[in-house]
Structure formats: C-alpha cells, structure tokens
Specification:
six-stranded antiparallel beta sheet, six-stranded mixed beta sheet, 41 strands, globular
C-alpha cells in the first residue's frame, strides 16, 4: 500500500495492521499487543526491501498505518503520519541505517498530530519541516515539527468546499512546492496556491474540465520537469493531471455499475499570468493510475483500472499497458506511446516508485476488505515487479553513461562536476543531468516527487572514455528543499545509474 525509497537504496514497504497476522514473523520474539484483529500479533506488516540484493527484512510498525502519508525530511528520515483508529494521529519515523552495523526499525513518537489524518498528503518545505494537508473530515493542515508559536492546526476551507456529498473526491490532494515558496494544492477539480506562512489562499485556478480527479475518483498527477537556468529563481512550473472518474462513479460502483474511467489529461502552466488547462486524451481511460517522472524527463503512467473508482470492489477491467508520455514532443498526437503489458492486475492499494537504476518498482493490489487470494476475480497480489522503461533495453546499453565521481559538497546555486564514462571515446554534447526527489507513493500519488533539469555549464573530454560535465545546482530551497536526491546523467535519452547527493 505504501512505498518509500531511501538514500541507502532500500525501500520501506508497509500495509495496514488490522487484518490479523501476516505470513512474515517479527524477529527476536517481538509482538504487538494493541492490535484490533487479534490480541497478540507477532507478525510483520512492514518490510525493508534491498533493491540490489532483492532481499527483505521484517520491520515492526506499532499502530495502524492504513491510508497514511509521508515525506522524507532533510536528514533522509521518513516522516510518516496518520492512519486509521489507533494510528490516526500518530507520527512515525524511519531512519535509514547500515544493516551490517545496526538494525534500524520504526520509531513512533509520543507526540501526536493535532488532528486525525486519514487519506492526507505530506510535503517537505524549504525549512525542512513537513506540511500535512487534509484527510477524511480534516479540512485543515499542520506541520511537523510544529511551529513554536502555534501548537495547532490551520483551517483550510478549500478542502471543505471540494468535498462531494457521500463521495468526497478530494482526499489525498495533490501538493507541489512552488519556486516562490508557496504550496500548490489540487483537490477534486479545483486548485489553489496557499501561502502557508500567512495561512492565506493567494490564488485560485480554473477548474479542470471533465471528471473528478482525487480519491476515490482517483486520478494521478505530476509536476512536469523544471528546466533550470543559472541564477533564475522563477522557472516555469507546469502541472499535469491524468485519469479519474465521473461524479457519481463511487456510488454507482457500490450498486455494481462500473462507469468508464477518464481518458483525459490536463496540463496547466501555473506560472503563466492567466493559466488555463490544456486537455489531451490518453490511449485508454484510467482510474487509480500511478504517474512517475523518469530520469529522461518523460512520464510513465501505469497500474489502475478502466472502469469504476478506488475502494473495495469498486473497479473492474484492469489496465495492463503502461503508457509513456513525452511532454516536450511538439506533436500532441505523438506524445503518448503504449508499451508492453504486464500480466498482473494492479488495482486498488498498489504502488510504484522510481529506483536508482532507472527501473520502476511495482507492487501490491488488494481490492478486497480482506486478503483474498482465491475465489475472486482480482486476488490480493503479493508480488513485486521491476518495470524497465524503453531506455533500459539492451540495444541502448552502449549509450549508457556510468558515473565515476561527483565533486561536492553540493550547495545551492554553486557549480559541481560529475565525471562519467561512456562505452566509446567519441565526445558528445547530447547530455542532460537531472535531479530527482524520491517519492512517498500511495493511492496513485507520488508525494514529494519533483524533477529538475540542471543547467549545463561545460562538458570536457578527460580521457578516451571519460568525460566531465559541470552543472549548476538548483538556486534555492524553494526549488529543491534540503534533502537527498538522485542525480542521473542522461546521454542521448539513456540514463545511467544515479548517485545520491545531499542538498544542504
């Protein structure tokens, strides 16, 4: 249900705790004694997955994390908030460590959120704090750590205004930090800019045409790559929203009628003086899609269903085909490409995240109230898949750069150099350096996801097969909050394995 890549190349994966025991035992006699389903639970509902080794280790989460949210802070620690029942106001931490030297596990704070947060969205801020927005019947936001001068929450009437009777359709809102330091918030069909310092909505945008877009009429969204120019503190910002469901689809699904999912995507340059949505059609309709930014600056859309909405038993007809979207392709009819399908339906409660080698980790799917492995059309799915975008096909291997060194530390607005190797000695200028934040993915939205295309200052041929590219780091904390990021060198549209850098 939830995934977060950490800067030690491991992925924290976790699911709700109140379904009873899992098939994975906790180590060293650890048990939970506060479970809703059974009196004593000595099984794991979270794992730490090692990407390189394809191995996992059980973790102990103490309270119910069902439909919770998260963000990685400036130290690389996952701040994980909210959930269900005993977890609805909890704050949990997971800090990456070297498993060979120490065993890291979940820590749950005695401090609580001020409001119950179930289906909320988190985002890191320029000062390193986390903002937690919304949730079921929570028309407000708050911070972690809390402001010293305010120990409560801040009302946001926008969240109440975007709630549909009996359906909601405004949960897990889409959040993006803007270069001016304010927060873009999208819910249902509307979006605003919030000045969270002054607790004031400073702009509202036109409604996106067509269907509803946030949970349970679940579409997905990305902030398209920001192309940076040295010294420019105001890059163009464009938001993209795809898929979703018609109003009423949730109620219809409850009575066994599954309405077609939305085929439309909307793009809006929110930094324009008079922004408007520009609409496009995907090759197929999709509800509960996952949208991820690729190191090339393209977008991958995968998972989901073609009819219904999010929720138990609320969708049918899984969409097995990933779709590649090229935002910079001038011809709109050529932007979408349908790729080879999976054989595994990924419906409600599935997730996907970008890995440091450019693959996409895909897992989950549990569209039932309980874990149903047999006797249903869409069984609970326990497998993980690695989806390989076209740039990882063997025929492109000779274009793939291999990073040797990064000259740091990397500071805001300062130049830094990356030395890399290519499989041939011919100098090339067809190079791009991208910086990507690892996302917290759940319920079809990759929280905190952002991609920066860095300004290239110089490219030098160092030896027969080695080159050095010099770029400018992002100019401000508003554009890239302090934390860990994956840096990719992309050569002729083919990225190599990334390296982690810390912006501070």
């Amino acid at each position: 249900m939830h995934m977060q890549l950490l800067h030690n190349n491991k992925v924290v994966i976790f699911d709700r705790t109140d379904f009873g025991s899992s098939n994975l035992s906790l180590p060293e006699g650890k048990c939970r004694y506060n479970d809703e389903a059974i009196k004593v639970d000595c099984t794991a509902h979270s794992i730490l997955y090692g990407v390189a080794t394809n191995t996992y280790r059980p973790l102990m989460v103490q309270t119910d994390v069902w439909c919770s949210s998260g963000a990685v802070n400036s130290n690389g620690t996952l701040i994980q908030t909210g959930g269900y029942h005993d977890g609805e106001r909890k704050i949990r931490l997971f800090s990456p460590c070297n498993d060979e030297e120490e065993i890291c596990d979940w820590t749950e704070l005695s401090q609580n959120l001020t409001v119950k947060r179930w289906y909320s969205t988190d985002h890191i801020l320029p000062d390193g704090r986390i903002i937690i927005v919304g949730g079921r019947s929570a028309f407000s936001y708050e911070f972690f750590p809390q402001n010293s001068n305010n120990n409560g929450f801040f009302n946001l009437s926008f969240l109440k205004e975007t709630t549909d009777p009996k359906e909601e359709n405004n949960l897990y809102p889409f959040l993006y930090l803007l270069p001016d330091g304010n927060m873009y918030i999208f819910a249902n069909q509307r979006s605003i800019v919030l000045d969270y310092v002054k607790n004031k909505v400073i702009k509202e945008f036109p409604k996106i045409p067509g269907e509803k877009r946030t949970y349970p009429a679940t579409g997905s969204s990305v902030m398209l790559p920001m192309k940076l120019v040295a010294g420019d503190l105001s890059p163009v910002v464009e938001v993209m929203v795809c898929g979703g469901a018609n109003g009423g689809a949730f109620l219809q699904a409850k009575s066994g009628v599954f309405m077609p999912a939305s085929r439309t995507c909307g793009r809006m340059r929110i930094t324009d003086p008079d922004p408007v949505w520009v609409m496009e059609d995907m090759p197929m309709g999709r509800v509960m899609p996952d949208m991820l930014l690729l190191p090339t600056g393209d977008v991958i859309i995968l998972n989901g269903a073609s009819k219904g909405t999010a929720g138990w038993e609320n969708a049918i007809d899984p969409v097995l085909y990933p779709v590649l979207y090229k935002p910079n392709e001038p011809d709109p009819s050529k932007r979408f490409t349908v790729l080879k399908p999976t054989t595994i339906p990924r419906m409600y409660h599935s997730a996907a995240t970008l890995l440091p080698d450019g693959r996409i980790l895909v897992g989950g799917s549990n569209p039932h109230v309980r874990y149903n492995f047999t006797g249903v059309k869409y069984p609970t799915e326990l497998s993980l898949e690695a989806f390989m975008p076209p740039y990882l096909s063997p025929q492109h291997s000779h274009f793939r750069p291999s990073i040797l060194t990064v000259e740091g530390p990397i500071s805001y607005g300062q130049k830094f150099s990356i030395t890399f190797m290519l499989g041939f000695s011919k100098p090339t200028k067809e190079l791009m350096v991208t910086m990507i934040a690892p996302s917290f993915t759940t319920h079809s939205f990759a929280m905190n996801q952002r991609l920066l295309i860095l300004d290239v200052v110089d490219v030098q041929q160092m030896s027969g097969f080695t080159q050095r590219i010099t770029v400018c780091a992002p100019p401000s904390r508003n554009i890239v909050p302090p934390s860990y990021y994956m840096v990719f060198v992309v050569h002729k549209g083919v990225p190599g394995h990334s390296v982690w850098v810390k912006m501070q």
